[in-house]
């Protein structure tokens, strides 16, 4: 499976592509960061991110796109930029009909380091080790994008089993609902 991980950000958007499957060695196909000028208007920055992601999709033909799920932050301006960049990545994947997975930062940290509270240095060190790299990808956004891809490769089989179980339980909706509840 080839997974493109996207660590969304308006100034720096990390992108990484990893090949692998559960129980097999992982291989980094590519890693980088899409950058936009802070003094550019937001709409223009989003266009630059969209073009960059489309170029990565063209160049690397991933099977799945894994994007960091936006979470609440104290700085509303930062979370807005992250959410906007995330939406662009999701749109690019959807436009191509690619499966999309969203993973929280703590899920990614736990999958890669064993602790959902790991810091950036620990994530970078484990990505370096797992992918057998000479040094940690820089900046941290690049390492985080690779960590997202690794997380998805390792968690995809469990997610697929859960999705299939829900579809069997409720084929008309593809999800399970508590007894007595009604569809929304």
Molecular structure report:
The protein has 184 residues and is an alpha/beta fold. It has one domain (2-156): Ribonuclease H-like superfamily/Ribonuclease H (Nucleotidyltransferase, domain 5, 2-Layer Sandwich). 48% of the residues lie in helices and 17% in strands. It has 5 helices and 5 strands. It has helices at 42-60, 76-95, 105-113, 120-130, 140-169, and strands at residues 2-7, 12-19, 27-35, 64-68, 100-103. It has a 5-stranded mixed beta sheet with strand order 3-2-1-4-5. Strand 4, helix 2 (76-95) and strand 5 (100-103) form a beta-alpha-beta unit. Helix 3 (105-113) crosses helix 5 (140-169) and helix 4 crosses helix 5 (140-169). Residues 175-184 have low confidence and may be disordered.
Overview features:
alpha/beta; Nucleotidyltransferase, domain 5; five-stranded mixed sheet; 5 helices; 5 strands; globular; disordered C terminus
Rg, rounded, reads: 17 Å
Average of per-residue pLDDT values: 89
The CATH architecture category equals 2-Layer Sandwich
Structural class: alpha/beta
End-to-end distance = 34 Å
Counting structural domains, the number is 1
Looking at this structure, what is the CATH superfamily?
A: Ribonuclease H-like superfamily/Ribonuclease H
Give helix and strand order, one letter per element, not per position: EEEHEHEHHH
Largest sheet, in brief, is:
5 strands, mixed
The dominant shape is: globular
Given this structure, which CATH class is correct? Alpha Beta
Spans of at least 5 consecutive residues with low confidence: 175-184
- Counting DSSP E segments of at least 2 residues, the number of strands comes to 5
The number of helical elements comes to: 5
Query: Strand percentage, roughly?
Result: 15-25%
């Amino acid at each position: 499976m080839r997974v493109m991980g996207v660590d969304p950000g308006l100034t720096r958007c990390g992108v990484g592509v990893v090949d692998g499957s559960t129980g097999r060695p992982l291989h980094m196909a590519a890693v980088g960061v899409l950058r936009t000028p802070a003094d550019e208007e937001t709409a223009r920055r989003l266009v630059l991110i969209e073009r960059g992601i489309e170029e990565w999709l063209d160049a690397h033909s991933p099977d799945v796109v894994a994007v960091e799920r936006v979470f609440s932050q104290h700085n509303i301006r930062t979370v807005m930029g992250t959410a906007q960049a995330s939406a662009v990545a999701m749109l690019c994947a959807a436009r191509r009909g690619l499966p999309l997975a969203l993973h929280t930062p703590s899920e990614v940290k736990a999958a890669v380091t064993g602790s959902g509270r790991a810091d950036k240095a620990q994530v970078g060190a484990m990505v370096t080790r797992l992918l057998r790299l000479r040094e940690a990808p820089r900046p941290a956004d690049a390492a985080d994008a690779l960590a997202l891809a690794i997380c998805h490769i390792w968690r995809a089989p469990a997610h697929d089993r859960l999705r299939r179980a829900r579809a069997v339980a409720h084929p008309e909706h593809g999800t399970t609902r508590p007894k007595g509840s009604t569809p929304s």
